[in-house]
């Protein structure tokens, strides 16, 4: 629905684009003006945003699965209510983001189909399993913590609909991060078994969380252009470092050990140097060979098929209302 009445005419890529329009566009970006859906934009800017925003939306939707698995097994009613609300928030984020992507001219159907066909990516982090209740704490603390670090700068992204969607998303992610940290704190201060469970979750989620920020700067193919367009405000490595620096003291407060023997604090800068990330593991997860890739896609496909009647009913209802409105106008 958002794609109607939008000016999405492509001008055939940089070579065919009017140089004056491109220069004016870059001036607006440089001046921190917001680009809106009907403004002229380079075809590459539209493509980059459609890719990033739709991947982000898919991540929110697939991201409901690892935690959703624990809703029926939450240890108390309070934990269950909070987790249920969190997972619903993630669904809401997915929906705002699909709506933001639609303002660029792509339909939600084609974006979702690309994800279900395994052609569009979603965040690598959601291809890891949630083995214990502590994983729910670790996801809130670390995964949402990493997401906030990446997403706060996106509130200042040059594309207005994306930037505005991120404001509410970030507020909700902050709450998610706190609920996760509070679970970890309760476990870390609980019995020896509970503390061991929290430590095990930290050990398993730490390295995949560092990978969430994307490949190292030297290998990041989109960063330079996305930075020039002010879609990205910080590089992958800069955000990763900010996350490490914010998280290590939080682990210390929990009394948990960081699963990185090479982690050292640089006393001059106050920053932490961390050990080597296993980029081969990241490549494998992106290639579809992570621990849960097949399961996540199969679950999403089944959910999509089982939801077909809802989409058909909604479309039939919308058509009926539109027909009635036309009849009323004609009468
Ligand atoms: N996983 O050139 P690069 C959440 C891909 S969900 C998979 O650096 P870019 C939550 C990248 O797409 C939050 N793929 O790319 C939900 C590219 O491949 P393509 C998810 C990755 O775009 C539920 C290639 O690697 N957050 O918060 O400049 C529960 C080269 O990378 C990943 C977002 O989506 C990855 N981790 O930078 C709890 C944030 N990293 O597309 C929490 C929005 C890289 O050319 N996205 N790739 O085939 C971004 O900020 C940027 O897209 C990235 C990557 C920093 C992720």
Primary descriptors:
331 residues, mainly alpha, two-stranded antiparallel ribbon, 14 helices, 1% strand, globular, disordered N terminus, binds benzoyl coenzyme A
Short note summarizing the structure:
By secondary structure, the protein is mostly helical.
Task: Explain this structure.
The chain has 331 residues and is mainly alpha-helical. It is 66% helix and 1% strand. It contains 14 helices and 2 strands, in the order H-H-H-H-H-H-H-H-H-H-H-E-E-H-H-H. The protein has a two-stranded antiparallel ribbon with strand order 1-2. Helix 7 (133-151) packs across helix 11 (236-254). The radius of gyration is 22 Å and the shape is globular. Mean pLDDT is 95; it is low at 1-5 and 7-12. Bound molecules: benzoyl coenzyme A. Benzoyl coenzyme A is lined by residues 51-52, 55-56, 59-60, 63, 90, 121, 123-124, 139, 143-144, 147, 150, 211-215, 220-223, 226, 236, 286.
Radius of gyration: 22 Å
Per DSSP E runs of 2 or more residues, the count of β-strands stands at 2
How much of the sequence is in beta strands? Answer: under 5%
Assign a percent range to the helix content: 55-70%
Main sheet summary: 2 strands, antiparallel
Order of helices and strands: HHHHHHHHHHHEEHHH
Structural class per helix/strand content? Answer: mainly alpha
SS field, number of helical segments = 14
**Could you name the ranges where pLDDT drops below 50 across 5 or more consecutive residues?**
1-5, 7-12
Topology readout:
Blueprint: H1 13-16, H2 19-30, H3 43-62, H4 64-68, H5 77-102, H6 108-116, H7 133-151, H8 160-188, H9 192-211, H10 223-228, H11 236-254, E1 264-265, E2 272-273, H12 279-289, H13 293-306, H14 308-330
Antiparallel strand pairs: 1-2
Helix pairs in contact: 3-5, 5-8, 7-8, 7-9, 7-11
Bound molecules: benzoyl coenzyme A.
């Amino acid at each position: 629905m958002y794609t109607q009445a939008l000016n999405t005419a492509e001008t055939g890529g940089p070579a065919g684009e009017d140089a004056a329009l491109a220069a004016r566009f870059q001036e607006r970006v440089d001046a921190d003006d917001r680009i809106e859906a009907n403004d002229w934009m380079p075809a590459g800017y539209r493509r980059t945003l459609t890719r990033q925003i739709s991947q982000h939306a898919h991540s929110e939707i697939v991201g409901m699965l690892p935690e959703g698995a624990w809703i029926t097994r939450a240890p108390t009613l309070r934990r269950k209510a909070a987790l249920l609300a969190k997972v619903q928030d993630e669904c809401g984020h997915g929906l705002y983001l699909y709506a933001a992507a639609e303002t660029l001219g792509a339909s939600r159907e084609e974006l979702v189909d690309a994800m279900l066909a395994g052609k569009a990516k979603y965040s690598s982090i959601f291809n890891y399993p949630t083995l214990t209740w502590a994983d729910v704490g670790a996801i809130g603390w670390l995964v949402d913590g990493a997401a906030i670090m990446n997403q706060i700068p996106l509130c200042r992204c040059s594309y207005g609909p994306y930037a505005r969607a991120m404001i509410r998303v970030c507020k909700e992610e902050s709450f998610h991060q706190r609920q996760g940290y509070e679970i970890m704190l309760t476990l870390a201060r609980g019995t020896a078994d509970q503390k061991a469970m929290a430590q095990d979750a930290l050990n398993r989620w730490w390295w995949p969380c560092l990978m969430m920020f994307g490949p190292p700067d030297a290998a990041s193919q989109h960063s330079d252009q996305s930075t020039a367009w002010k879609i990205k405000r910080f590089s992958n490595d800069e955000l990763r470092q900010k996350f490490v620096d914010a998280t290590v003291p939080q682990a210390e407060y929990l009394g948990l050990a960081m699963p990185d023997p090479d982690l050292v604090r640089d006393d001059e800068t106050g920053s932490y140097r961390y050990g080597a990330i296993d980029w081969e593991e990241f490549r494998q997860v992106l290639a579809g060979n992570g621990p849960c890739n097949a399961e996540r896609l199969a679950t999403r496909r089944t959910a999509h098929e089982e939801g077909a009647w809802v989409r058909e009913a909604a479309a039939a209802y919308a058509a009926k209302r539109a027909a009635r409105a036309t009849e009323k106008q004609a009468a």
